[in-house]
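Notes from the 1:1 (GR / supervisor)

We went over the backlog. Supervisor wanted to see one worked example end to end before approving the batch request, so GR pasted a single chain during the call. The sequence is below; no edits were made to it. Supervisor asked that the structure be written out right there so they could see what the output format looks like.
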Amino acid sequence: MKNKITPLLVSFAGVATAAQAQHGVAPQDQAGARPNILFCIADDASYHHFSANGCSWVNTPAFDRIAREGVLFASCYTPNAKSAPSRACILTGRNSWQLKEAGNHVGNFPAEFTVITEALEGAGYATGYTGKTWAPGNPGMKDGEPRRLTGKPYNDKKLSPPAKFISAVDYAANFSLFLDDAGHEPWFFWYGGQEPHRAYEQGAGQRVGGKSPEMIDRVPTYYPDNEIVRGDMLDYGMEIEWFDAQLGKMLDELERRGMLRNTLIVVTSDNGMPFPRGKANDYDYSCHMPLAVMWQEGIRTPGRTETGYVSFVDYAPTFLEAAGVEQERSGMQAITGRSLGDILRDSQSPAEKDSRRSILLGRERDDYGRPDNQGYPMRAIIRDGMLLVLNLKEDRWPAGDPLTGYLDVDGSPTKSLLLDMHRRGEETSYWQLSFGKRPVEELYDLSSDVDCIHNLAALPGYAALKESLREELVARLKEQDDPRMFGRGDVFDNYPFDKPGNENFYERVESGEIAEPWRQTNWINATDYDLYLDKLKKGEVEPYNKVTTAQ
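Structure output shown during the call:
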Protein backbone atom coordinates (compact mmCIF):
# COMPACT_ATOMS: atom_id res chain seq x y z
CA MET A 1 0.00 0.00 0.00
CA LYS A 2 1.30 3.43 -0.90
CA ASN A 3 2.59 5.43 2.07
CA LYS A 4 0.64 8.68 1.87
CA ILE A 5 2.55 11.62 3.30
CA THR A 6 1.23 15.09 4.11
CA PRO A 7 3.33 17.93 5.48
CA LEU A 8 2.96 18.71 9.16
CA LEU A 9 0.52 21.55 9.82
CA VAL A 10 1.06 22.90 6.32
CA SER A 11 -1.81 23.22 3.80
CA PHE A 12 -1.10 22.11 0.28
CA ALA A 13 -3.13 22.99 -2.78
CA GLY A 14 -2.68 24.16 -6.31
CA VAL A 15 -0.15 22.87 -8.79
CA ALA A 16 3.31 21.60 -7.86
CA THR A 17 6.40 22.85 -9.61
CA ALA A 18 8.04 20.52 -12.10
CA ALA A 19 10.73 19.53 -9.58
CA GLN A 20 8.13 18.94 -6.87
CA ALA A 21 5.88 16.88 -9.11
CA GLN A 22 8.77 14.73 -10.28
CA HIS A 23 9.70 13.81 -6.70
CA GLY A 24 6.21 13.39 -5.31
CA VAL A 25 6.10 16.73 -3.48
CA ALA A 26 2.69 17.90 -2.40
CA PRO A 27 1.76 21.30 -3.90
CA GLN A 28 1.73 24.36 -1.63
CA ASP A 29 -0.69 27.22 -1.34
CA GLN A 30 0.33 30.80 -0.73
CA ALA A 31 -0.18 30.49 3.02
CA GLY A 32 2.28 27.77 3.89
CA ALA A 33 5.86 27.36 2.69
CA ARG A 34 7.72 24.13 3.06
CA PRO A 35 9.82 24.29 6.22
CA ASN A 36 13.55 24.71 6.36
CA ILE A 37 15.36 21.98 8.28
CA LEU A 38 18.33 22.53 10.61
CA PHE A 39 19.81 19.24 11.79
CA CYS A 40 22.34 19.61 14.61
CA ILE A 41 24.45 16.66 15.73
CA ALA A 42 27.13 16.63 18.42
CA ASP A 43 29.99 14.14 18.22
CA ASP A 44 30.12 11.67 21.15
CA ALA A 45 27.69 13.18 23.69
CA SER A 46 25.46 10.98 25.85
CA TYR A 47 21.83 11.77 26.70
CA HIS A 48 22.73 12.18 30.36
CA HIS A 49 24.91 15.27 29.91
CA PHE A 50 22.49 17.96 28.73
CA SER A 51 20.89 20.20 31.31
CA ALA A 52 17.35 19.74 29.97
CA ASN A 53 17.86 16.03 30.66
CA GLY A 54 18.68 16.68 34.31
CA CYS A 55 22.46 17.20 34.24
CA SER A 56 23.49 19.79 36.82
CA TRP A 57 27.13 20.31 35.82
CA VAL A 58 26.78 20.76 32.02
CA ASN A 59 24.88 23.87 30.95
CA THR A 60 23.15 23.69 27.55
CA PRO A 61 20.81 26.70 27.28
CA ALA A 62 20.30 26.43 23.51
CA PHE A 63 19.33 22.76 23.70
CA ASP A 64 17.11 23.60 26.66
CA ARG A 65 15.38 26.31 24.65
CA ILE A 66 14.68 23.87 21.82
CA ALA A 67 13.16 21.49 24.38
CA ARG A 68 11.18 24.23 26.13
CA GLU A 69 9.70 25.65 22.92
CA GLY A 70 9.35 22.27 21.22
CA VAL A 71 9.42 18.64 22.27
CA LEU A 72 11.98 16.89 24.47
CA PHE A 73 12.42 13.17 23.77
CA ALA A 74 13.40 11.11 26.80
CA SER A 75 13.95 7.80 24.97
CA CYS A 76 15.85 8.42 21.74
CA TYR A 77 18.44 5.79 20.76
CA THR A 78 20.93 5.36 17.95
CA PRO A 79 20.82 1.87 16.44
CA ASN A 80 24.62 1.76 16.35
CA ALA A 81 26.81 3.72 18.78
CA LYS A 82 29.70 4.58 16.48
CA SER A 83 30.01 7.63 14.30
CA ALA A 84 29.89 6.40 10.69
CA PRO A 85 27.18 3.72 11.05
CA SER A 86 25.11 5.94 13.33
CA ARG A 87 25.17 8.76 10.79
CA ALA A 88 24.40 6.30 8.00
CA CYS A 89 21.20 5.35 9.85
CA ILE A 90 20.22 9.02 9.99
CA LEU A 91 20.88 9.56 6.31
CA THR A 92 19.03 6.48 5.05
CA GLY A 93 16.28 5.78 7.56
CA ARG A 94 17.53 2.19 7.81
CA ASN A 95 19.20 0.27 10.63
CA SER A 96 22.92 -0.37 10.34
CA TRP A 97 22.49 -4.11 9.72
CA GLN A 98 20.44 -3.14 6.65
CA LEU A 99 23.18 -0.96 5.15
CA LYS A 100 25.81 -3.44 3.96
CA GLU A 101 29.25 -1.78 4.17
CA ALA A 102 27.80 1.36 5.74
CA GLY A 103 26.96 -0.75 8.79
CA ASN A 104 30.68 -0.72 9.64
CA HIS A 105 32.91 2.08 10.88
CA VAL A 106 35.77 3.32 8.63
CA GLY A 107 34.15 1.63 5.64
CA ASN A 108 32.69 2.53 2.26
CA PHE A 109 29.25 4.02 1.67
CA PRO A 110 27.33 1.98 -0.94
CA ALA A 111 26.14 3.93 -3.96
CA GLU A 112 22.80 2.09 -3.92
CA PHE A 113 21.61 3.99 -0.84
CA THR A 114 20.21 7.39 -1.76
CA VAL A 115 20.41 9.62 1.31
CA ILE A 116 17.95 12.16 2.69
CA THR A 117 19.94 15.18 1.48
CA GLU A 118 19.92 13.85 -2.09
CA ALA A 119 16.18 13.23 -1.88
CA LEU A 120 15.58 16.75 -0.63
CA GLU A 121 17.86 18.24 -3.28
CA GLY A 122 15.76 16.51 -5.91
CA ALA A 123 12.69 18.12 -4.38
CA GLY A 124 14.07 21.63 -4.65
CA TYR A 125 15.89 22.03 -1.33
CA ALA A 126 19.29 23.67 -1.00
CA THR A 127 21.58 21.53 1.16
CA GLY A 128 24.83 22.14 2.99
CA TYR A 129 26.81 21.33 6.08
CA THR A 130 29.47 22.63 8.41
CA GLY A 131 31.84 20.63 10.61
CA LYS A 132 31.68 16.85 10.55
CA THR A 133 29.71 15.07 7.86
CA TRP A 134 29.27 11.30 7.51
CA ALA A 135 32.68 10.06 8.70
CA PRO A 136 35.09 8.41 8.98
CA GLY A 137 35.03 6.47 5.76
CA ASN A 138 34.91 6.68 2.00
CA PRO A 139 31.65 8.22 0.70
CA GLY A 140 32.33 7.06 -2.84
CA MET A 141 32.20 9.09 -6.05
CA LYS A 142 29.35 10.81 -7.85
CA ASP A 143 29.70 12.71 -11.11
CA GLY A 144 33.47 12.41 -10.86
CA GLU A 145 33.71 13.94 -7.38
CA PRO A 146 33.53 12.63 -3.82
CA ARG A 147 29.88 12.11 -2.96
CA ARG A 148 28.44 14.85 -0.74
CA LEU A 149 26.30 12.90 1.67
CA THR A 150 25.28 15.97 3.69
CA GLY A 151 25.34 18.59 0.95
CA LYS A 152 27.80 21.31 0.00
CA PRO A 153 30.56 21.94 2.58
CA TYR A 154 30.71 25.27 4.40
CA ASN A 155 33.88 25.22 6.47
CA ASP A 156 35.91 28.22 5.28
CA LYS A 157 35.02 30.60 8.09
CA LYS A 158 37.35 30.13 11.08
CA LEU A 159 37.68 31.35 14.65
CA SER A 160 40.11 31.07 17.54
CA PRO A 161 38.81 28.25 19.76
CA PRO A 162 38.99 28.65 23.55
CA ALA A 163 40.92 25.43 24.07
CA LYS A 164 43.28 23.21 22.14
CA PHE A 165 41.57 20.53 20.01
CA ILE A 166 38.23 22.35 19.79
CA SER A 167 37.57 22.81 16.08
CA ALA A 168 38.56 26.14 14.56
CA VAL A 169 35.60 25.94 12.17
CA ASP A 170 33.20 28.81 12.87
CA TYR A 171 30.01 26.79 12.60
CA ALA A 172 27.62 29.71 13.02
CA ALA A 173 29.42 31.98 10.54
CA ASN A 174 29.42 29.20 7.96
CA PHE A 175 25.72 28.63 8.55
CA SER A 176 25.10 32.33 7.88
CA LEU A 177 27.05 32.07 4.64
CA PHE A 178 24.93 29.08 3.61
CA LEU A 179 21.74 31.03 4.29
CA ASP A 180 23.01 33.81 2.02
CA ASP A 181 23.60 31.28 -0.75
CA ALA A 182 20.27 29.48 -0.28
CA GLY A 183 18.29 32.61 -1.02
CA HIS A 184 14.54 31.97 -1.12
CA GLU A 185 14.77 28.20 -1.58
CA PRO A 186 13.76 25.90 1.25
CA TRP A 187 16.89 24.41 2.75
CA PHE A 188 18.36 21.57 4.78
CA PHE A 189 21.52 22.30 6.77
CA TRP A 190 23.60 19.80 8.72
CA TYR A 191 25.46 21.30 11.70
CA GLY A 192 27.99 18.59 12.52
CA GLY A 193 29.79 19.77 15.61
CA GLN A 194 33.13 18.04 16.14
CA GLU A 195 32.71 18.37 19.88
CA PRO A 196 32.90 16.67 22.35
CA HIS A 197 34.98 14.17 20.35
CA ARG A 198 38.48 13.67 21.66
CA ALA A 199 41.19 14.85 21.97
CA TYR A 200 40.74 17.30 24.87
CA GLU A 201 43.07 19.87 26.32
CA GLN A 202 43.54 18.35 29.75
CA GLY A 203 42.23 20.70 32.42
CA ALA A 204 40.25 22.89 30.00
CA GLY A 205 37.02 22.01 31.76
CA GLN A 206 38.27 23.84 34.81
CA ARG A 207 40.38 26.54 33.13
CA VAL A 208 37.95 27.45 30.32
CA GLY A 209 34.68 26.01 31.53
CA GLY A 210 35.00 27.33 35.06
CA LYS A 211 34.06 23.94 36.49
CA SER A 212 35.36 22.10 39.52
CA PRO A 213 35.44 18.33 40.10
CA GLU A 214 32.97 18.41 42.99
CA MET A 215 30.30 19.86 40.68
CA ILE A 216 29.84 16.45 39.05
CA ASP A 217 26.89 14.89 40.82
CA ARG A 218 27.45 11.38 39.48
CA VAL A 219 30.35 9.39 38.07
CA PRO A 220 29.31 6.15 36.31
CA THR A 221 29.96 3.28 38.69
CA TYR A 222 32.13 1.42 36.18
CA TYR A 223 34.86 4.04 36.73
CA PRO A 224 36.80 4.87 39.89
CA ASP A 225 35.45 8.08 41.38
CA ASN A 226 38.63 10.15 41.54
CA GLU A 227 40.20 13.38 40.31
CA ILE A 228 41.44 11.82 37.05
CA VAL A 229 38.02 10.63 35.93
CA ARG A 230 36.24 13.75 37.16
CA GLY A 231 38.73 16.00 35.38
CA ASP A 232 38.29 14.01 32.17
CA MET A 233 34.52 14.35 32.47
CA LEU A 234 34.80 18.11 32.99
CA ASP A 235 36.84 18.46 29.80
CA TYR A 236 34.16 16.47 27.97
CA GLY A 237 31.36 18.57 29.44
CA MET A 238 33.05 21.83 28.48
CA GLU A 239 33.08 20.73 24.84
CA ILE A 240 29.36 19.90 24.96
CA GLU A 241 28.82 23.46 26.15
CA TRP A 242 30.86 24.74 23.19
CA PHE A 243 28.66 22.76 20.79
CA ASP A 244 25.59 24.22 22.45
CA ALA A 245 26.92 27.78 22.33
CA GLN A 246 27.32 27.57 18.53
CA LEU A 247 23.77 26.24 18.30
CA GLY A 248 22.61 29.30 20.22
CA LYS A 249 24.28 31.56 17.67
CA MET A 250 22.47 29.74 14.86
CA LEU A 251 19.13 30.26 16.58
CA ASP A 252 19.94 33.95 16.91
CA GLU A 253 20.75 34.13 13.20
CA LEU A 254 17.46 32.50 12.27
CA GLU A 255 15.58 34.97 14.45
CA ARG A 256 17.46 37.89 12.93
CA ARG A 257 16.46 36.76 9.45
CA GLY A 258 12.84 36.06 10.42
CA MET A 259 13.27 32.34 9.61
CA LEU A 260 12.89 30.73 13.01
CA ARG A 261 9.13 30.11 12.93
CA ASN A 262 9.18 27.87 9.89
CA THR A 263 12.44 26.01 10.54
CA LEU A 264 12.29 22.46 11.83
CA ILE A 265 15.24 22.18 14.23
CA VAL A 266 16.49 18.81 15.44
CA VAL A 267 19.33 18.57 17.99
CA THR A 268 20.97 15.27 18.92
CA SER A 269 24.33 13.45 19.06
CA ASP A 270 25.69 10.54 17.05
CA ASN A 271 26.67 8.22 19.91
CA GLY A 272 27.62 8.17 23.56
CA MET A 273 30.54 9.62 25.48
CA PRO A 274 34.11 8.78 24.27
CA PHE A 275 35.08 6.89 27.41
CA PRO A 276 35.58 3.18 28.16
CA ARG A 277 32.24 1.32 28.12
CA GLY A 278 30.74 4.40 26.46
CA LYS A 279 30.41 4.59 22.69
CA ALA A 280 30.89 1.44 20.58
CA ASN A 281 28.66 -0.62 22.90
CA ASP A 282 24.94 -1.29 23.31
CA TYR A 283 24.58 0.08 26.84
CA ASP A 284 22.54 3.10 27.89
CA TYR A 285 25.48 5.51 28.03
CA SER A 286 26.42 4.24 24.55
CA CYS A 287 23.16 4.49 22.61
CA HIS A 288 20.82 6.75 24.62
CA MET A 289 20.91 10.06 22.78
CA PRO A 290 19.76 13.60 23.53
CA LEU A 291 16.94 14.75 21.28
CA ALA A 292 15.00 18.00 21.24
CA VAL A 293 12.88 19.21 18.32
CA MET A 294 11.49 22.71 17.74
CA TRP A 295 9.26 23.96 14.94
CA GLN A 296 7.14 26.91 15.91
CA GLU A 297 4.77 26.55 12.98
CA GLY A 298 4.60 22.78 13.10
CA ILE A 299 4.48 21.57 16.69
CA ARG A 300 1.34 21.42 18.78
CA THR A 301 1.51 21.60 22.56
CA PRO A 302 5.16 22.71 22.84
CA GLY A 303 7.05 22.24 26.07
CA ARG A 304 6.16 18.60 26.60
CA THR A 305 8.37 15.55 27.11
CA GLU A 306 7.73 12.37 25.12
CA THR A 307 8.78 9.05 26.63
CA GLY A 308 8.09 6.59 23.79
CA TYR A 309 11.10 5.05 22.08
CA VAL A 310 12.33 6.80 18.94
CA SER A 311 15.25 5.83 16.75
CA PHE A 312 17.68 7.58 14.44
CA VAL A 313 15.98 5.79 11.55
CA ASP A 314 12.93 7.97 12.27
CA TYR A 315 14.65 11.20 11.20
CA ALA A 316 14.67 10.65 7.42
CA PRO A 317 10.93 9.90 7.13
CA THR A 318 10.22 12.88 9.39
CA PHE A 319 12.15 15.18 7.06
CA LEU A 320 10.45 13.75 3.99
CA GLU A 321 7.04 14.24 5.54
CA ALA A 322 7.79 17.79 6.61
CA ALA A 323 8.98 18.60 3.07
CA GLY A 324 5.96 16.92 1.52
CA VAL A 325 8.03 14.29 -0.31
CA GLU A 326 6.51 10.84 -0.80
CA GLN A 327 8.88 8.09 0.30
CA GLU A 328 8.12 5.97 -2.77
CA ARG A 329 9.16 8.79 -5.09
CA SER A 330 12.14 10.04 -3.07
CA GLY A 331 14.64 7.68 -4.71
CA MET A 332 15.55 6.23 -1.31
CA GLN A 333 15.60 2.54 -0.48
CA ALA A 334 12.67 1.31 1.62
CA ILE A 335 12.77 3.17 4.93
CA THR A 336 12.57 1.21 8.19
CA GLY A 337 11.92 4.20 10.45
CA ARG A 338 8.63 5.97 11.06
CA SER A 339 8.02 9.69 10.90
CA LEU A 340 7.80 11.57 14.17
CA GLY A 341 5.06 13.69 12.66
CA ASP A 342 2.26 12.30 14.80
CA ILE A 343 4.32 13.00 17.93
CA LEU A 344 5.09 16.56 16.83
CA ARG A 345 1.40 17.11 16.09
CA ASP A 346 0.54 15.60 19.48
CA SER A 347 -1.87 13.31 17.68
CA GLN A 348 -0.65 9.80 18.50
CA SER A 349 -3.33 7.16 18.80
CA PRO A 350 -3.13 4.61 21.61
CA ALA A 351 -1.96 2.04 19.06
CA GLU A 352 0.80 4.33 17.81
CA LYS A 353 1.99 4.94 21.36
CA ASP A 354 1.97 1.21 22.06
CA SER A 355 4.09 0.61 18.95
CA ARG A 356 6.88 2.69 20.50
CA ARG A 357 7.38 0.44 23.54
CA SER A 358 10.57 -1.14 22.16
CA ILE A 359 13.61 -0.35 20.06
CA LEU A 360 16.48 -2.29 18.43
CA LEU A 361 20.23 -1.72 18.74
CA GLY A 362 23.26 -3.36 17.21
CA ARG A 363 26.90 -3.22 16.32
CA GLU A 364 29.29 -4.72 13.80
CA ARG A 365 32.90 -3.79 13.01
CA ASP A 366 34.11 -0.52 14.47
CA ASP A 367 37.83 0.29 14.30
CA TYR A 368 40.35 -2.21 12.99
CA GLY A 369 42.79 -4.30 15.00
CA ARG A 370 41.25 -7.75 15.59
CA PRO A 371 42.45 -10.96 13.91
CA ASP A 372 41.10 -11.46 10.39
CA ASN A 373 39.62 -7.94 10.31
CA GLN A 374 36.86 -9.07 12.65
CA GLY A 375 34.33 -6.87 14.37
CA TYR A 376 32.35 -7.47 17.55
CA PRO A 377 28.76 -8.18 16.51
CA MET A 378 26.01 -7.36 19.00
CA ARG A 379 22.24 -7.12 18.77
CA ALA A 380 20.01 -5.71 21.48
CA ILE A 381 16.47 -4.72 22.29
CA ILE A 382 15.01 -2.36 24.86
CA ARG A 383 11.38 -2.89 25.81
CA ASP A 384 9.63 -1.13 28.66
CA GLY A 385 12.96 -0.23 30.25
CA MET A 386 14.51 -3.71 30.04
CA LEU A 387 17.66 -4.08 27.91
CA LEU A 388 18.66 -7.46 26.45
CA VAL A 389 22.08 -7.58 24.78
CA LEU A 390 23.26 -10.54 22.70
CA ASN A 391 27.03 -10.78 22.19
CA LEU A 392 27.05 -12.89 19.04
CA LYS A 393 30.81 -13.64 19.09
CA GLU A 394 31.55 -13.70 22.79
CA ASP A 395 35.00 -15.23 22.29
CA ARG A 396 36.23 -11.93 20.81
CA TRP A 397 37.44 -8.88 22.72
CA PRO A 398 34.59 -6.32 22.84
CA ALA A 399 36.80 -3.21 23.09
CA GLY A 400 39.37 -4.37 20.56
CA ASP A 401 42.27 -6.75 20.92
CA PRO A 402 44.80 -6.18 23.75
CA LEU A 403 47.70 -6.62 21.31
CA THR A 404 46.57 -3.60 19.33
CA GLY A 405 45.69 -1.34 22.25
CA TYR A 406 41.90 -1.80 22.47
CA LEU A 407 41.32 0.31 19.40
CA ASP A 408 37.54 0.60 19.82
CA VAL A 409 38.13 2.82 22.88
CA ASP A 410 39.57 6.28 22.30
CA GLY A 411 42.71 7.18 24.20
CA SER A 412 42.02 9.20 27.34
CA PRO A 413 43.13 9.74 30.93
CA THR A 414 40.27 7.47 32.02
CA LYS A 415 41.32 4.67 29.67
CA SER A 416 44.96 5.00 30.75
CA LEU A 417 43.91 4.85 34.40
CA LEU A 418 41.92 1.62 33.94
CA LEU A 419 44.71 -0.03 31.95
CA ASP A 420 47.36 1.00 34.49
CA MET A 421 45.26 -0.32 37.38
CA HIS A 422 44.84 -3.63 35.56
CA ARG A 423 48.57 -3.92 34.89
CA ARG A 424 49.22 -3.41 38.59
CA GLY A 425 46.50 -5.85 39.58
CA GLU A 426 44.49 -3.15 41.38
CA GLU A 427 40.68 -3.25 41.36
CA THR A 428 40.65 -5.11 38.07
CA SER A 429 36.85 -5.19 37.99
CA TYR A 430 36.95 -1.77 36.32
CA TRP A 431 39.10 -3.20 33.51
CA GLN A 432 36.81 -6.20 33.19
CA LEU A 433 33.71 -4.06 32.73
CA SER A 434 35.27 -1.96 29.98
CA PHE A 435 37.73 -4.29 28.25
CA GLY A 436 37.10 -7.87 29.35
CA LYS A 437 35.19 -10.54 27.47
CA ARG A 438 31.45 -10.77 28.05
CA PRO A 439 28.78 -13.46 28.34
CA VAL A 440 26.49 -14.29 25.43
CA GLU A 441 23.50 -12.69 27.14
CA GLU A 442 23.20 -9.53 29.21
CA LEU A 443 19.94 -8.30 30.74
CA TYR A 444 19.57 -5.00 32.57
CA ASP A 445 16.76 -3.07 34.23
CA LEU A 446 17.46 0.49 33.08
CA SER A 447 15.02 1.96 35.58
CA SER A 448 17.35 0.98 38.45
CA ASP A 449 20.63 0.20 36.67
CA VAL A 450 21.36 2.81 34.03
CA ASP A 451 25.06 1.88 34.20
CA CYS A 452 24.21 -1.68 33.10
CA ILE A 453 26.27 -3.30 35.85
CA HIS A 454 23.92 -5.92 37.32
CA ASN A 455 23.42 -8.62 34.70
CA LEU A 456 20.10 -10.38 35.34
CA ALA A 457 20.32 -12.80 32.42
CA ALA A 458 21.20 -15.87 34.47
CA LEU A 459 18.58 -15.34 37.18
CA PRO A 460 15.66 -17.81 36.96
CA GLY A 461 13.11 -15.13 37.79
CA TYR A 462 13.93 -13.31 34.54
CA ALA A 463 13.96 -16.34 32.22
CA ALA A 464 10.50 -15.76 30.73
CA LEU A 465 11.13 -12.06 30.18
CA LYS A 466 14.50 -12.75 28.61
CA GLU A 467 12.99 -15.28 26.21
CA SER A 468 10.19 -12.90 25.27
CA LEU A 469 12.70 -10.14 24.50
CA ARG A 470 14.86 -12.50 22.48
CA GLU A 471 11.89 -13.70 20.44
CA GLU A 472 10.85 -10.16 19.57
CA LEU A 473 14.41 -9.16 18.74
CA VAL A 474 15.03 -12.12 16.44
CA ALA A 475 11.64 -11.82 14.74
CA ARG A 476 12.13 -8.14 13.95
CA LEU A 477 15.70 -8.64 12.77
CA LYS A 478 14.53 -11.37 10.41
CA GLU A 479 11.85 -9.04 9.06
CA GLN A 480 14.63 -6.58 8.32
CA ASP A 481 16.77 -9.24 6.61
CA ASP A 482 19.65 -8.92 9.06
CA PRO A 483 22.44 -11.17 7.66
CA ARG A 484 23.31 -12.31 11.20
CA MET A 485 19.92 -13.97 11.51
CA PHE A 486 20.48 -16.10 8.39
CA GLY A 487 24.03 -17.34 8.89
CA ARG A 488 25.51 -14.65 6.64
CA GLY A 489 26.85 -12.33 9.31
CA ASP A 490 30.51 -12.77 8.43
CA VAL A 491 29.90 -10.54 5.44
CA PHE A 492 30.43 -7.58 7.76
CA ASP A 493 33.94 -8.82 8.64
CA ASN A 494 34.76 -9.29 4.96
CA TYR A 495 33.81 -5.84 3.75
CA PRO A 496 36.94 -3.82 2.92
CA PHE A 497 38.04 -0.87 5.01
CA ASP A 498 38.07 2.60 3.49
CA LYS A 499 41.85 2.47 3.03
CA PRO A 500 44.05 -0.51 2.10
CA GLY A 501 46.51 0.36 4.88
CA ASN A 502 43.88 -0.57 7.47
CA GLU A 503 43.53 -4.17 6.30
CA ASN A 504 45.02 -7.03 8.38
CA PHE A 505 46.36 -4.59 10.95
CA TYR A 506 46.46 -7.19 13.74
CA GLU A 507 48.49 -9.67 11.69
CA ARG A 508 50.92 -6.98 10.56
CA VAL A 509 51.50 -5.90 14.15
CA GLU A 510 51.85 -9.47 15.39
CA SER A 511 54.39 -10.33 12.68
CA GLY A 512 56.44 -7.18 13.30
CA GLU A 513 55.73 -5.73 9.87
CA ILE A 514 54.32 -2.71 11.69
CA ALA A 515 56.95 -2.22 14.37
CA GLU A 516 55.44 0.89 15.96
CA PRO A 517 51.67 0.68 15.38
CA TRP A 518 50.93 3.59 17.72
CA ARG A 519 52.19 5.91 14.99
CA GLN A 520 49.32 4.78 12.75
CA THR A 521 46.50 4.68 15.31
CA ASN A 522 46.42 8.31 16.36
CA TRP A 523 43.09 8.12 18.19
CA ILE A 524 44.61 6.15 21.08
CA ASN A 525 47.69 6.72 23.21
CA ALA A 526 50.94 4.88 22.66
CA THR A 527 50.74 3.68 26.26
CA ASP A 528 47.51 1.82 25.44
CA TYR A 529 49.79 -0.74 23.77
CA ASP A 530 51.51 -3.21 26.10
CA LEU A 531 53.91 -3.66 23.18
CA TYR A 532 54.96 -0.01 23.42
CA LEU A 533 55.55 -0.21 27.16
CA ASP A 534 57.63 -3.37 26.78
CA LYS A 535 59.78 -1.84 24.05
CA LEU A 536 60.13 1.43 25.95
CA LYS A 537 61.30 -0.45 29.04
CA LYS A 538 63.90 -2.31 26.95
CA GLY A 539 65.06 0.90 25.29
CA GLU A 540 63.96 -0.30 21.86
CA VAL A 541 61.81 2.75 21.06
CA GLU A 542 61.90 6.44 21.80
CA PRO A 543 59.17 7.95 24.00
CA TYR A 544 56.14 8.78 21.86
CA ASN A 545 53.79 11.42 23.21
CA LYS A 546 51.62 12.38 20.26
CA VAL A 547 48.23 13.53 21.47
CA THR A 548 45.29 11.55 20.14
CA THR A 549 43.07 13.00 17.43
CA ALA A 550 39.65 12.18 16.05
CA GLN A 551 38.66 8.90 14.41
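Supervisor's comment: The CA atoms of residues 130 and 154 lie 5 Å apart.
Batch request approved.
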